[in-house]
Specification:
The structure holds two protein chains of two kinds. Helices cover 43% and strands 4% of the residues of chain A. By secondary structure, chain A is mostly helical. Chain A has two domains: 89 residues, Alpha-helical ferredoxin (Fumarate Reductase Iron-sulfur Protein, Chain B, domain 2, Orthogonal Bundle); 130 residues, no CATH class. A three-stranded parallel sheet of chain A has the order 2-1-3, with no helix packed on it. By secondary structure, chain B is mainly α. The chains are: A mainly alpha, B mainly alpha.
Chain lengths: 244, 193
């Protein structure tokens, strides 16, 4: 005759980090579906860094080792590339778990370089991670354009408009070119000119990078995205065209 | 940028009218429509070998294998099909280079380079002279991986190679070309600074 199962009396389990993240994600990010196969870890270039890997990170979260997973610098070494999801039979969203682990760090303690780049983007309407203002951007674009129109007469009619209403394409520009190597903007302009594309940059949201997402700063990420998309809509552009 | 926009629009329920696209799709479309008359004649005798990085943000995380095919169509059109060597694995299954997610700015330099070893080995296995990286994070990381380890490949933007194949790449737009291409098909060489 079987005995009654032993009941373990204990305190109510505290709310775990992984449970909080599960509540935020669609389908809970499948975070409780791990079959521990290790496909994620074997195909992750960040495996071994900081003695961590994606499977271990997820298992530690599932075991409630919240302090460890919200303090390991490994979360800044996962690039969020999603290859782990791609190879996972259960499509577990480990990168989102990493994202919220990043977010659990006090903002000022997150890596300075990423923090600085996001804060630069918040300085003005350019949303440029290098802090270039809309006026600086306009000056560089016009200056370089003028130079090339003269030096290469086949491109004397080439344009690089900013805020051209009704243009079909709204383009952004990685700040690295206008700020550090402006000649590198030209090949793209030449291609667009050769094809006869009707395009424009925006004076707002032209910065083609978003470090606020990497910083896991939701509010700032939203601001950068909204600023660029609103400008494109305001100009009546049909296509928001990303070069990267 | 692509992923931050697509994911941001969804995550924050941002109303918008315009459609978010990648320029890779348009490069391929414009070549197919004959609006970009690229060709690979410049590489007929040189036979320089090229491989291409699949930026995670655009391929795996946003538009998948169809855009990886567009990217390959563009690259093969400009360097010659016989001069293109794919990495293994590739397309949606390719490895991240280690330049994304803020890694380049995070200060963990040694870890970033250790992460990138897989990518470096992939590129070396192709034997390519050039790796085309049409994403700034990938470009910066792959360029750095070659430089710090003295690997032989050069890292170039896609638009540089498109313009080179069109014969409209001037002497001052060749920062990332190696010596083997600095003098090839130069547009207005007299404007060199």
């Amino acid at each position: 005759m079987s005995e009654d199962a032993i009941k373990i009396e204990g305190k109510k389990k505290k709310s775990l980090f992984i449970d909080k993240v599960r509540e935020i994600l669609p389908d809970g990010g499948n975070l409780n579906m791990c079959i521990t196969c290790g496909a994620c870890a074997s195909g992750c270039p960040a495996t071994g860094l900081e003695n961590m890997d994606p499977r271990k990170f997820l298992r530690m979260a599932a075991l409630g080792l919240d302090e460890e997973i919200t303090s390991t610098p490994w979360v800044w070494m996962c690039t969020g590339c999603q290859r782990c999801i791609y190879v996972c039979p259960m499509k577990i969203n480990i990168p989102e778990l990493v994202y919220y682990a990043r977010q659990s760090w006090p903002r000022e303690e997150r890596p300075k370089g990423i923090l600085g780049s996001c804060d630069m983007a918040l300085r003005n309407d350019s949303c440029s991670a290098m802090g270039a203002s809309p006026d600086d951007f306009q000056f560089v674009v016009e200056d370089v354009l003028e130079e090339y129109r003269e030096a290469q007469p086949e491109f004397k009619d080439m344009e690089a408009p900013i805020d051209k209403a009704g243009a079909e394409f709204f383009l952004n520009q990685n700040s690295r070119e206008p700020v550090t190597e402006p000649d590198e903007m030209v090949p793209l302009w030449k291609i667009l000119h050769t094809v006869g594309v009707d395009w424009t940059y925006g004076s707002k949201g032209w910065g083609g990078e978003n470090y606020c997402m990497f910083l896991a700063d939701d509010e700032a990420w939203e601001h950068v995205t909204r600023t660029a998309l609103n400008k494109a809509d305001e100009l009546g552009c049909k296509i928001f065209l990303n070069t990267e | 940028m692509t992923f931050s926009v697509l994911a941001g629009l969804k995550k924050f329920n941002i109303d918008h009218k315009c459609e978010v696209k990648s320029i890779y799709e348009y490069y391929a479309k414009w070549i197919r429509e004959g609006k970009l008359k690229v060709n690979s004649d410049w590489n007929k005798d040189l036979k320089l070998k090229f491989t291409v990085q699949d930026p995670c943000q655009i391929i795996r995380k946003s538009y998948g294998d169809p855009i990886a095919e567009d990217l390959r169509f563009v690259v093969k059109s400009i360097v010659g099909e016989e001069n293109f060597i794919d990495m293994t694995p590739n397309r949606s299954n390719n490895f991240c280079c280690g330049g994304g997610g803020g890694f380049l700015q995070s200060g963990y330099v040694d870890a970033r380079r250790a992460y990138g070893k897989i990518k470096a080995d992939q590129i070396l296995a192709t034997g390519a002279d050039y790796c085309i990286a049409a994403c700034h994070n990938c470009h910066a990381q792959i360029h750095d991986l070659a430089e710090v380890n003295d690997h032989a490949w050069q890292t170039v933007h896609l638009w540089t190679m498109i313009c080179l194949s069109l014969g409209i790449l001037g002497p001052n737009e060749r920062e990332y070309l190696g010596d083997d291409l600095k003098e090839v098909n130069v547009f207005h060489p007299e404007t060199a600074l």
